[in-house]
Design a protein that fits this description.
Blueprint: E1 12-18, H1 26-36, E2 40-51, E3 56-61, H2 64-77, E4 82-85, H3 91-100, E5 107-109, H4 126-134, E6 140-141, H5 145-152, H6 159-170, E7 177-179, E8 188-195, E9 198-205, E10 211-212, H7 214-227, H8 232-248, E11 251-252, E12 258-259
Parallel strand pairs: 1-2, 1-4, 4-5, 5-6, 10-12
Antiparallel strand pairs: 2-3, 7-8, 8-9, 11-12
Helix pairs in contact: 1-7, 2-3, 3-4, 5-6, 7-8
Length: 262
């Protein structure tokens, strides 16, 4: 088979996630963010959604065999330097992803569970498979506070709780966790990178409005910078800076919420 990339001299990253037709999150935002980090972006679609910056009105999971075929065919031609997962709607898709991903590629897991408007994006019974099957494969897991609460099985009310929840997620087998602080309160938005014997805090001033897609973009930026050759700490720091600029430059649509513009 003739490759489209016979002399690959640039890094690439692969996103395995759902589609957002508004372009503000999911696959569409991941590809934009990969481009901003200087890597070639590839994408496997796991779900179709009907959504905009304000709400999700419906979602439909792709057949697991279709997800498997997408992944295996893409990997025939190019092995990415990093892989990011986003919306994985059910146990069958989670198992397909775990079975088909190469073992030696850094894996960034964004454990997408519920949209900001409250639409469930993963089946309840699939959360345990995410915990048991895929998270142990992760280089880093990137939950927001509500997702960290679910994965850790605890309520988060303070920064100390954030660190404790992160350590509980480490116990699931991942190498490191960064708990995103966008759902927190206060004048600063802090993300906590948590390892077994280390906690690193990344802080920027909290901007006075919500944005659509910041979580997807942050996780994609981490994956993109890892693909570009950065270590995880540096990737997280650069991702924080990129997403902060994206929130500052957010696009205002007709609704109440802005869309991040990395």
């Amino acid at each position: 088979m003739t490759s489209y990339f016979p002399e690959k001299d640039f890094p690439s990253a692969l996103s395995i996630a759902g589609s957002d037709p508004s372009g503000g999150a999911g696959i569409q935002m991941d590809l934009k963010t990969f481009a901003r980090t200087g890597v070639w972006g590839m994408a496997i679609i796991t779900a179709l959604t009907a959504q905009n910056a304000v709400r999700v009105s419906g979602s439909w999971a792709i057949e697991p065999d279709c997800v498997r075929e997408q992944i295996s065919t893409v990997l025939e031609d190019m092995t990415p330097e990093a892989i990011k997962t986003g919306m994985l709607a059910n146990s069958e898709i989670i198992r397909v992803v775990e079975e088909t991903l190469p073992l030696n590629v850094p894996l960034v897991i964004d454990p997408v569970m519920v949209s900001t408007s409250g639409h469930r994006l993963i089946h309840e019974d699939a959360i345990q498979d995410l915990r048991d099957i895929l998270i142990p494969r992760a280089t880093i897991v990137t939950p927001n506070i509500p997702e960290a609460q679910i994965l850790a099985g605890m309520t988060i009310l303070s920064e100390e709780d954030v660190v404790e929840a992160g350590k509980k997620i480490l116990d699931l087998g991942t190498m490191q966790v960064i708990v995103k602080g966008g759902h927190g309160t206060g004048k600063d938005a802090s993300d906590f990178l948590i390892r077994k014997n280390e906690v690193i805090r990344f802080t920027k001033p909290r901007l006075p409005y919500d944005v659509h897609g910041s979580g997807c973009a942050f996780s994609a930026a981490i994956a993109g910078y890892i693909a570009a050759g950065l270590d995880v700490t540096s990737a997280c720091e650069k991702a924080k800076n990129l997403i902060n600029r994206g929130i500052e430059n957010a696009v205002q649509g007709n609704g109440r919420k802005k869309i991040i513009n990395p």
